[in-house]
């Protein structure tokens, strides 16, 4: 009876080693794939270029939101203007930084393993700095006008929270499926429709949620509006 027990123990030990080895191999493959997507920069300018792109892109987007909120020529077109500006900036910054322009999107890409967490944190800093800069530029430009950040009457905070959560989720889902998916966006043949899809989500969400929450879907834009 001791021999079968010893054989079973040896078999369990071997299976455990094989399982542990396969887990190590899968982790190594994931790290290698992430390194291949984001190779180390070759120069200082190349290292800072993605963060500068995120700062400038978020600044332009937040500045557009501020202009639409404080001096709308025609409020009916505000959501379209913001969505189209997002689309343009995604095409402009996508080849450099991936075109996140939104801390929520960067968080989502970090959670899916598409971005290293060190890059995610750097993008957060750049995006929030872009939002602060946009708010600081709009303040003297449109003074004494001020934008209000919060639910639109007669809706309460819980309704605004729910709407913001739904459309921020839709925005992040579109980014992940159009940009992070290797099937929809292969490295050797990247698609050209991702910015269109993401921009139209912003347009649809803007028209749908602007009367409930103001339609931010972006913590950097919320920060800019709070400054305003």
From TrEMBL:
Protein keywords: Membrane, Transmembrane, Transmembrane helix, Transport
InterPro entries the UniProt entry points to: Aquaporin-like (IPR023271), Aquaporin_transptr (IPR034294), MIP (IPR000425)
GO cellular component, one term: plasma membrane
A GO MF label: water channel activity
Transmembrane segments: 51-73, 79-97, 104-126, 159-180, 192-209
Membrane-topology descriptor: Multi-pass membrane protein
Subcellular localization, as worded in the UniProt entry: Membrane
Signal peptide per UniProt: none
SUPFAM superfamilies: Aquaporin-like (SSF81338)
Pfam family, one: MIP
Similarity-based family: Belongs to the MIP/aquaporin (TC 1.A.8) family.
Protein name in UniProt: Aquaporin
Native species: Strombidinopsis acuminata
